[in-house]
């Protein structure tokens, strides 16, 4: 923009009309850039505000009793199709539903490991994992240690 303004000023043609047209074009470009930046900034603000329906779904799925709920039942809670729910969830939460639920389940597993004496298989089943090895693998990925090691540390 600055270069264009300098170019307009350095034009040898003394035609006031010609410089006025170029000045208007420059002004139009400046307004377009500012307007575009405002729209982009506003759209980013809207993405961070979680819609009411998603807030209601999050309230439910953050409760341990919903951890073992099948995904299709969670989609039904939203009133959206699986495809649209997945799109909106990723947009607003920055991760997939499966990743989000895994994080919540592992957090809850950590709590159970430190606050109860339940065996690890019971905790895995409680969280909806029918395979202990899969649970151990996910726990290791998220926490950097096995559930048994975590319990010993706690």
Explain the overall architecture:
- The chain has 9 helices and no strands.
- It has 154 residues and is mainly α.
- The radius of gyration is 28 Å and the shape is elongated.
- About 3% of the residues have low confidence.
Q: What are the key terms here?
A:
154 residues; 76% helix; elongated; mainly alpha
Proportion of residues in β-strands? under 5%
Overall average pLDDT:
84
**Coarse structural class:** mainly alpha
Poorly predicted parts = 43-47
- Strand segment tally: 0
Shape: elongated
Residues in helix, %: over 70%
What's the multimeric state? single chain
Radius of gyration: 28 Å
* Count of helical stretches: 9
Note the gap between the termini: 60 Å
Order of helices and strands: HHHHHHHHH
Break the fold down into its secondary structure elements and pairings.
Blueprint: H1 2-10, H2 16-48, H3 52-61, H4 71-78, H5 82-93, H6 97-115, H7 120-126, H8 132-143, H9 147-153
Helix pairs in contact: 1-2, 6-9
């Amino acid at each position: 923009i600055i270069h264009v303004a300098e170019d307009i000023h350095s034009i040898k043609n003394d035609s006031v009309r010609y410089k006025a047209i170029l000045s208007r074009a420059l002004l139009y470009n400046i307004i377009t850039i500012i307007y575009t930046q405002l729209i982009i900034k506003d759209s980013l603000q809207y993405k961070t505000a979680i819609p009411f329906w998603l807030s209601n779904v999050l309230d439910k799925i953050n409760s341990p009793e919903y951890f073992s709920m099948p995904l299709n039942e969670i989609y039904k809670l939203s009133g959206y199709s699986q495809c649209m729910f997945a799109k909106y969830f990723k947009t607003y939460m920055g991760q997939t539903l499966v990743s989000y639920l895994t994080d919540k389940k592992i957090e809850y597993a950590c709590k159970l490991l430190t606050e109860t004496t339940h065996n690890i298989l019971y905790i895995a089943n409680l969280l909806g994992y029918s395979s202990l090895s899969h649970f151990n693998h996910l726990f290791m990925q998220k926490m950097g240690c096995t559930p048994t090691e975590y319990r010993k540390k706690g």
